[in-house]
Amino acid sequence: MSVFSSPNKSKICLPHKSSSSKGIFLGDNPFRFPTPLLLAQLSLCSFFAAVLQFVLLPLGETVFAAQILAGILLGPAVMGKIHQFQDLVYPSESSYIGETFSIFGVMLFLFIVGVKTDLNFLRQPGRKAVAIGICTFIVPLALNLLLALIVRHSVAMDPNLHKSLLWVASFQSLSSFHVIVCLLADLNLLNSEIGRLAISSSIISGTCSWFLAMIIFTAKQSMEGSKQDTLLLLFFFVACMLITVIYVLRPLMFWMIRQTTNHKAIRESYVIAVFLMILGCAMFGEIMGQHFLFGPIILGMAVPDGPPLGSALLTKLECIVSSVLVPVYFVISGARIDFSLMHSRNVAIIELLAFLGFLWKAVGAMLPSLYCRMPLSDSLYLGLIMSGQGIMDVLVFERARQLDLISPESYSIMVLSAVLFTGIMTPIVKFSYMPSRRYAAYKRRTIQHSAPHAELRMLACIHYQDQTPSILNLLEASNPTSKSPICLYVIHLVELTGRAAPLFVAHHPGGRSTSHLNQSDHIVNAFRIYEQQRHGNLMVYPFTAISPYASMHDDVCALALEKWVSIVILPFHTFQTIQGTEGSANSIRAVNRNILKMAPCSVGVFVDRDTQNSEAPLSASPDLFSIGVIFLGGQDDREALAYASRMAKHPNVSLRVVHFTVPSNNQSYSSEQEHDIIMIKEFMNANGKNELCVYQEEVVKDSVGVVTVIHKVENCFDLILVGRHHAKDSPLLVGLKEWNEFPELGFIGDMLASSDSNCKVSVLVVQQQACVDGNLLDTPEYILEQHSSAIVDMPLSLVK
């Protein structure tokens, strides 16, 4: 028997009912039992949220908009059934079963948000970010409160709204760091210039907003108590929790990290210990009168971000929380939205405050940006981003409703306003703001057009430590000398895990390292040692970029533009490790393709096939390093030849250029062919006296002849250079398009790098700078100037 107390203190006895169904074959209706209902609720919430994300994300909407919309549409139906079930089975005032799951999910979600928050931004955020953050907090708060006071005294309204209007205006003016970061991630703008500024600014505004909300909620709770000095006691216990987390739990987590050796996963017992800390902090918050979410937020901020602890916690929690538990919370939040409570006058007043709160945030962000001479368009986009709302705002609205600071009607309208304005703003930003415009170079940045004895600036990208030796050998083959030194920028690209904001670190000699940069230190040390061995012929500037793969190209392109780099070297996404196994990552391939599309300079994709033998320095090897160039014509082949011409000056390098031509009696040449011939002649003039340089002309009729010749000579080299694209409409390429597995390598590069190929040598596929100031290089405005030397009409002879 189950015994329940009714409101008039009488007791009701009901027969005990099992929580699990015996099944439809034994006559039970599964949906009249708690367990099947719970599973159905979880499944429907997750599935419907996933479907809406699949539909809305390509349209520019955010994950928040998709999930809250799923909650609004699904909430009344799902929670209505649960409510009906409870009335029949459990006529008590206990919480919904699904709501219990949602509460647990929100607790873990806010813990994740604390873990991802990088408080280091508060130490040196920059004057511009501080000004924008403070203005984004003060301007909307002051103007919205002023407007609310005016409306209260001039417009007739419902008494409940009149009482809560100032709170509505205040909560509509708050902002959140996590909301801005999630918005930037959905828009793929985390690494953009505006994205980094928005992250630094939102840390300031979000911290101020969070403290204001905490003070308001704590003060409201203290007023409801019958004892005196309740407010002081609440703040005392808050201080006790902060001290415990900072001086007890945080040092304990650092001890866990020290016990974890490099490149090893953190122990399962440590993860369980952190989970117990989460539950303990939540329980302590409830005991002392704070919301149960307060403790996990504080603990999450104390967790060291990044690997090994922060990333391990996120790996275990983030997927299940964001995909299952958070959608349940949004469904429950959507079920609380009651359209029948909304009156047109109240809707108009709250929507006015919501819209102007959105507008004041944008103005607050734009004013200091314009004062700092940021372009008007960039200031506008920054203001729109800083005005975004998300799950943290819904949580604040929900807490305010629980404390009767706002009415259920105001809560419903405020949640709908957050969805409406954020849903309108994000597609505008996504489809109109193009961060790649800032990568547009206004001058040629290629090896071909560099001065013969000028410093060559290169940027090498490294994803894994195993790729370091082969990049060093390629650098050695590039022949840094005192007359033509090399300035090398090395960027270690690391996937963003365990933190919300991307990180870009410049490694200075003698600088301090952190736990998440240990692997970078090994890479940096290798290049530092090589720099010392070159005695001033080479300068190395290492960086580490921790960012999501979707926007990782922004770091590379921005650095290439800022440092006036002539060529970026990218490792091919399929690579050979030192152990001899092949690794592949489609995400790295996507990064490479984005860089090829947006880079402000030339790009080389390096297919390494010689990692196992690359430990010995090139200059110390007794054998010549043999390089081959496959030349079919076109600007990319000319760039590859220009790079190889520089390598040919190395004393331990032998070079052979294989030039493919078609038989023709026509002595007239196209503009592209004229440039090819000029380039060949320049190469011959520069290397005519070098016995280690050989020019070989092959006359072939079609692609079959090209493939035949390449297969004969491909394994005669240690490295092959080839252009990504070749002369347009060349008969030598007919038939090769059907076999192009990796378009980023071009037709010939793909043939050489294919796993089906017998080619066992490394390949460097070169793409010359694609555009200048947004215009393609092969347009008439950017055709190469004619050299003063005459073009020889007859084919170049074979040189041995």
Automatic annotation (TrEMBL):
Topology within the bilayer: Multi-pass membrane protein
Any single GO BP term: potassium ion transport
Taxon lineage: Eukaryota, Viridiplantae, Streptophyta, Embryophyta, Tracheophyta
Protein name: Cation/H+ exchanger domain-containing protein
Organism domain of life: Eukaryota
Protein keywords: Ion transport, Membrane, Potassium, Potassium transport, Transmembrane, Transmembrane helix, Transport
Primary localization class, coarse: membrane
Occurrences of domain Cation/H(+) antiporter central (ranges): 486-611
Organism: Escallonia herrerae
Residues that span the membrane, as ranges: 38-57, 64-84, 96-117, 129-152, 164-185, 197-219, 231-249, 270-293, 313-335, 347-367, 379-398, 410-429
Similarity remark: Belongs to the monovalent cation:proton antiporter 2 (CPA2) transporter (TC 2.A.37) family. CHX (TC 2.A.37.4) subfamily.
Pfam families: CHX17_2nd, CHX17_C, Na_H_Exchanger
